[in-house]
Amino acid sequence: ALARDLEVVVVDARRGLGNGRLLPAGPLRESAQRLESVDWVVSNGGEASETPPWRGRVGSLVMQLVPEAARSVADPLAWQSVERWRGESVHAVAGIGHPARFFDLLRAAGIEPIEHAFADHHDFTAADFAFDDGRPILMTSKDAVKCAGFADARFWEIPVATRLLPDGARGLVEAIETLCLASKKSEPA
């Protein structure tokens, strides 16, 4: 294992620690007790007003995923604003661990998803997209990579950006800056 200067754990704000069990019986990669020894816990998808159980024991902050401009899977040089589909019904495809998060992201952008949830790491084929209505097909970046070989003009990747909510973000940035400065000072001249 690599040495750790700063440990940051990301927890799904909606699902929390799930059933508290480790993979494959539950969602955790490490035991819940590990949260007591990390430096920061980032709640993914929460609200700044929420108080997670670890707040106060370690640094904590909230992040949200927001859609960026959509990229054509068939023509990677073609980009469109996600606003293009506001108020429209589209096919939303997600083969990720928690597909509802992607569908909710689209809804928050004003898009009306027709949900097509697949198992995490699904090996997509063209047959999975045999929709006969001509609607656009929006998907995660993870899924778009698997569809590049057979995508047509309907296929659009929706990359996401992380937005840290102000409450707590400054503390994490300062911790990282402190580590960078300390590392720079310890480098040989």
Q: Topology, please?
A:
Elements: E1 8-12, E2 40-44, E3 59-67, E4 70-72, E5 79-80, E6 89-94, H1 99-108, E7 112-117, E8 137-139, H2 141-147, E9 155-157, E10 160-164, H3 166-186
Parallel strand pairs: 1-2, 2-3, 6-7, 6-8, 8-9
Antiparallel strand pairs: 3-10, 4-5, 4-9
Summarize the structure in words.
This protein is an alpha/beta fold. It folds into two domains: 8-64 and 162-186, no CATH class; 69-158. It contains three helices and ten strands; from the N terminus they run ββββββαββαββα. The chain has helices at 99-108, 141-147, 166-186; strands at residues 8-12, 40-44, 59-67, 70-72, 79-80, 89-94, 112-117, 137-139, 155-157, 160-164. The strands form two sheets. The chain has a six-stranded mixed beta sheet. A four-stranded mixed beta sheet has the order 1-2-3-10. β6 (89-94), α1 (99-108) and β7 form a beta-alpha-beta unit. The longest helix is centred in the C-terminal third of the chain and has 21 residues, at 166-186. It is globular.
Q: How many H/I helical runs?
A: 3
Based on CA inertia axes, which overall geometry fits?
globular
Termini distance?
28 Å
Order of helices and strands: EEEEEEHEEHEEH
Radius of gyration: 20 Å
Structural class: alpha/beta
Uncertain segments: none
Q: How is the main sheet built?
A: 6 strands, mixed
Rounded mean pLDDT is 91
Report the portion of residues in β strands.
15-25%
Helical residue percent band: 10-25%
Count of separate structural domains? 2
- Please list the strands of the largest sheet in the order they lie side by side: 5-4-9-8-6-7
> How many beta strands in the DSSP annotation?
10
